[in-house]
Amino acid sequence: MKTESKLQQILDNGQFGVTAEIGPPKHSSSEGMRHHAHMLKEHVDATNITDNQTAIVRLSSIAAGVHILDSGIEPIVQMTCRDRNRIAMQSDLMGAYSLGMRNVLCLSGDHQQFGNHPTSKNVYDVDSMQLIQLLRRMRDEKKFFSGEEIKEHEPRFFIGAVANPFADPFEYRVARLEKKVEAGAEFIQTQCIFDMERFERFMEMVRARGIDERVHILAGVTPLKGWRAAKYIQNNVSGMIVPEELVQRLKSAEDPKKEGVNICVEQIKYIKENIKGVHGVHIMAIAWEEVVPEIVERCGLYPRPKIN
Amino acid sequence: MIIAQQKPVKDIAAMISDCNKVLFVGCAGCVTVCLAGGEKETEILASSLRIMRKLEHKPIETVTFTATRQCDPEYIVALDNMVQEVDAIVSLACGVGVQYLAERFKDKWVVPALDTKFIGGATEHGVWEEKCGLCGDCVLHLTGGICPIIRCSKSILNGPCGGSQYGKCEISKDVDCAWQLIYDRMTALGKLDKLMEIQPPKDWTKSRDGGPRRAVREDVMIG
Q1: B128, part of any domain
Q2: Does residue B113 share a domain with residue B140?
Q3: What percent of chain A clears pLDDT 90, i.e. is strictly above it?
Q4: Nearest 10 degrees: CA dihedral of A50, A56, A57, A62?
Q5: Cβ distance of A119 and B211 shorter than 8 Å
Q6: Cβ <8 Å between A121 and B211
Q7: Do B93 and B189 belong to one domain?
Q8: ipTM, 2 decimals?
Q9: What is the pTM of this model?
C-alpha cells in the first residue's frame, strides 16, 4: 500500500535508503533537535525520533516529530510498548498523523529499570508484533484495534519494525523477523552491526526465506568515538556484540574518532556492495549527529534522491 | 490461597487430541480447597475425557495421581515411573505446578487443565474473591486492612476516584468500591486523619514490573 511517506517512495523505487536518528532532549526546548535536523537534512531521507530511549524521560517523540518536520526532515516516530496501552497508542498515532508524521517504528522498548524511573510500572498491553498489526488494522482495514470502524481519516503510516541479529536464539531471530513481516511490517531497521560476520550469516538466512523480497531492510550502524565506548557496549549492553579486534583497532588508532568514522564508512560500503538483500542504512550516531553528513558523503550516498 | 478454575473440557480435550495415553495430575494444595484440581476433580476430568473420546471412537487410556503439592520437587518425584508410558500430562494444579511438571519431564507434552485466576479466599460456599495484588510491598496498614491495589479497579492509592457512588465501583454495580470500604473502616477506627497523608507512587520493582521475582532466606538455605 502506498502511503505519503517519502522514505517509502525511495525504498520502493529501489534506491539505497539512508536514515539517521535524533534523540529528543531531557528538557522542553526544541533548539538542539532543530540544530541537528538542519545539519542532517540534506544527507538523510528520514530520521528516527527515539521514544524515551533507555527508559529515560525525554521530550515526546511525536512532539519532537513536529520540530523535525518543521526543520525539513521526514520523521520516523518510534513508538515503544512500555509506556502506553492500546488506547493511548491509537490516540497518539492519530495525533501524530494529524501533525504530519508518516512513518512509525514499532519497538518493545527498554525495560524501565535502565532508566531514570526504575520503580515505575510497565505497560506492554500490546507487544511490538501486535503494534504492527494495530497500525495495519487502522490503515488497511480502517478499524480501531478493537474492530470498531474508523469512519474517516484513518492514519496511513509507512510501518517499520526492528530486528536484532545479535540477540538469541540466533536462528529464531530470522523467524521472528518473518513473523513481523507477516504481521505487516514494511521496513526493518536492525540493531547496530559491529559483528559483520554474524550479520552476513543472518542475511543469508533472511534471503533463504525470501524475507528481503518482502520487506525493506536497513542495516543499523553506529560510529564509535573510541575504544572505551566499544568496550562499554561489548560488556554492558544486552543484545549487542562488539568483536575484540574492533576494540583493538580503536585502541591503537592515533585519532580514535577519525578511526571510528573510518570503520563506519567501511561497514556501510561493505554492506552495500557485498550483502544482498539490504535496502539501506540506518546510521545511529549517538550524541554525534554532526558526523553523519561526512559518513554519507564518503559512502557515495550523497546527494539523496529528491522526492516531491 | 491460589484460586483456579477448570478450563472447558473441550479445550482440554483439544490439547491432547493426538494422545492415546494421558496422565492426569491433581494437586492437594490450594486447588483442592477451591474445588478445581483436587483428587475428586482429577478423577472426574479423566473420566469425562474417556467418555468423550469413546464417543468419538478414539478411546483414550488415562492414569490419575494427586500430588501433595505440585509446586515442590519432592512431591512430583513420585511421578517418575508413571510418566514413562504416557504421551502427555494434564496438570490440574495452578500455573506453578504445570511448570514444575514441564521442567521435570522435559520430553513430555505437559498441558494445563486450569486457569489460575488470583489469590483470595471464599466469601461463601462456591464463591471466591480476589484479595491480594501480590505487589510485594504491603500497604494494608495504611488502608484499614483493605487492599486498594487489587480491590480498587484502578489500583488508586489516594482514592476514591470520581466514579464511586452508592458504595460501588464505576465498572459494575456488583463491585464494591474499595475506597468506600477503606473510608468506612478508617472512620469506624477513628483513623480518618491517616487518609490525609498523600501516598507516594509505589515502587513497582517489588511487583512484577521489576521482572520475575525471587525470595531468598539465606538463614534456612542448606549447604
Answers
A1: no
A2: no
A3: 97
A4: 10
A5: no
A6: no
A7: no
A8: 0.85
A9: 0.92
